[in-house]
Amino acid sequence: MASMRKTKLEETAWVVDLEKAAAAAGDSPSSEAARYWHRHSIYRVPSCIKDLNRRAYHPQVVSLGPFHHSHPNLLPMETHKRRSLLHFLRRHRRRHKSSPLAEFAAAVAAVADELEGAYQGLAEEWPEEEVEERRERFLEMMVTDGCFLLEVMRTATGWEVNDYADDDPVFSSHGLLYTVPYIRRDMIMIENQLPLLVLEKLVAVETGIQENEDFINKLVLRFLSPEAWPMATGVGLALHPLDILRRSLLFGPAPTPRVPPETSPPPDDIIRSAEELYEAGIRFRRSPTSSLHDIRFDARRGVLHLPAIAVDDTTEYMLLNLMAFERLHTHAGGGNDVTAYVFFMDNMVDSARDVALLAARRIVVNTVGSDKAVARMFNGLSRDVVLEPVSALDDVHREVNAYCRRRWHRWRANLVHTYFRSPWSFLSLAAAVFLLVMTVMQTVYTVLPFYKGG
């Protein structure tokens, strides 16, 4: 009976199919899937992450790429995207006396496989369509979105002569003030990325210059973050705008752990809040650069150097999408530097008092108004986020904790926390000391005549 049941199971379709797949895969069953994984750089955010703050991962004005292309709320911008494409082509035709659309399409089509591979699960977006029809739609989308981004970035940065109408809803002064900031915010959504390879190919046809990676990197960074530190040249084309933003936050050499990770256990406790560190004698100083790598602790002087961070309406979205990118983009070995920084700041900022302390040192530049809102933002960023065992800030963490565990610094923190946290507690301490001194003096003056008389 058992052998008959086994024989029937061996003949079922799903068993046969899996046996064939296992035989074809050989010793590495995941090698076939891995050939696609290593090409991905633009991802769907899992529900376990997105459900915590859906607005942070969904574009509000414009769709870039296929993931949100047909969303009803984003369709009005499609008209403006098509207009920008016509402006782009008309301007090129006046310069070169030719019709360049076929050239642009051919340049993008040459890297279509690489572009499609950048999107995780793209085949599932249009499962009912034929491959050829899907490829045509995809190429049209890449060319249109790429030209639109070039037009927006050039107009906003003053690079290109503006040949749009004065009342244009996107490309006029009014549009740059009221519409472009939303486009800029949508460009940092991980699901709403456009591979910069598209822009490279379009610019190569437009200018005839094939080596334009540095130009594309600088153009995107100048649009996303005009105050950012200039990117290094010769580092290769970034993956997409979100990757550009991450690189701009992590410029400069990464700190080298003083102890090899395999022999260095993680810190045994969380870092204290900014106010608690201040009470323990640690002083805060603004780092000379804004790089998240420029965080260090001077144990001899008790000074913690931190880069400045401007907190505005887009900061939360930016950090959440950067953390999602670090979590999902595993094959590149890019590290967890942004996630480690967010955890570090979440531990340091517990209340509005911590924000006020860091703002007084020009480390937190608060443009949202309320210190409590900034504290609430930092406290919510790391919800349900797992930090890797080896973090980029482990050394700083250990040094700060070791400094706070010293006996004198513990006594100082307790003294400051108990007697110097408010004016009333300080006045109570001063009154107690004054009464003690007066009592001692009274005792001395009472006893002194007795000894003199004797």
Your description of this structure?
This protein is mainly α. The protein has four domains: 2-36, no CATH class; 54-249, no CATH class; 261-415, no CATH class; 426-453. Helix content is 56%, strand content 4%. It has helices at 2-11, 13-25, 31-37, 47-50, 76-96, 101-109, 112-118, 131-157, 173-178, 180-186, 196-207, 213-224, 241-249, 274-279, 315-328, 337-348, 352-360, 371-381, 394-405, 407-419, 423-453, and strands at residues 283-286, 296-298, 303-306, 309-311, 364-366. The protein has a three-stranded mixed sheet with strand order 1-3-2, covered by helices on one side. Strands 4-5 form a two-stranded parallel ribbon. β2 (296-298) and β3 (303-306) form a beta hairpin. α6 (101-109) packs across α8 (131-157). Mean pLDDT is 82; it is low at 408-420.
